[in-house]
Amino acid sequence: AHLFPDQGMVAMHSSVVNSNRTSLYFRSGQYGSYNHMHADQNSFMIEHNGNRLASKSGFYDSYHSTHDKGFTRQTFAHNSITYNGGFGQKDDSKDANGNIKQFVTHLDFDAAVGDAKNAYVGNIDKFDRTIIYLRPDSYIVVDELQNDTEQTYEWWLNSRPDTMTVK
Question: How open is the CA angle 50-133-86, to the nearest 5 degrees?
Fold first, then answer.
C-alpha cells in the first residue's frame, strides 16, 4: 500500500508485482472538485484481475457537458455518500476538499481514514470513512456520519458489468 499525500490518494494492493492482483483506490484530497476533479471525496474503487468491481459510473463525452456536469462529476456516480435523496458534495469547488487523516500499512493489513466533511459545504458535520484491507481478500468500510439536523444518508456502490467476466 502507498499513500500519495499531495493527491489525497491511497492505493492498497494484494501484490505489487502480480498484474492479476486485487487493488483498492481511496480518495480524499485537498484539491476539492475544481476543474478536472470530481465531487468524490472519501470514494473508493476496487479492481480484481483487471476487472472493475466497484468503479466510477458515467462517461466522459466532453468537458462540462450536460452528462459530465449532471452525472459523471456528481457524488452518486462514485462510491461515496449522499444525503436526503441524492444530495452530494459541492461540484466545481476548490473548497469541497477532503483529507487522509491516517494511514498505516502492515504485512497483514492496510488502513486509511479520510475526512470529507468540507466537501459537503456545511450540510454534513462529520464524514469520516475508514477502509481496512485484510489480506488477502477482505475489505471493511466504516463510515461515521454526523449532523445537527436529522438527515437520511445513501451509500453508493457502482459497478460496470460490461467490464466484468464470470468464469
Answer: 80
Dihedral in degrees, nearest 10, Cα atoms 34, 39, 44, 50: -70
Torsion of CA 12, 106, 30, 92, to 10 degrees: 20
133 close to 24: Cβ distance less than 8 angstroms: yes
Give me the percent of the chain exceeding a pLDDT of 90. 81
Whether the full predicted model's pTM is greater than 0.85, yes or no, is yes
Residue 103: φ, ψ to 5°: -150, 135
* CA pair distance 53, 137, nearest whole angstrom: 13
Q: Grid coordinates in use for 68? A: 459530465
How many residues does the structure list for the chain? 167
> For residues 117 and 32, is the Cβ–Cβ distance under 8 A?
no
Q: What confidence tens digit (pLDDT) does each residue in 13-28 have?
A: 999 899 889 999 999 9
Residue-wise pLDDT tens digits, 69-90: 999 999 999 999 999 999 999 9
47-82 burial by CB neighbour count: b if 16+ within 10 A, else e? bbeeebbbbbebeeeeeeeeebeeebbbbbbbbbbb
Q: Is residue 14 within 8 Å of residue 21, measured between CB atoms? A: yes
Q: Are 131 and 45 in contact (CB under 8 A)?
A: no
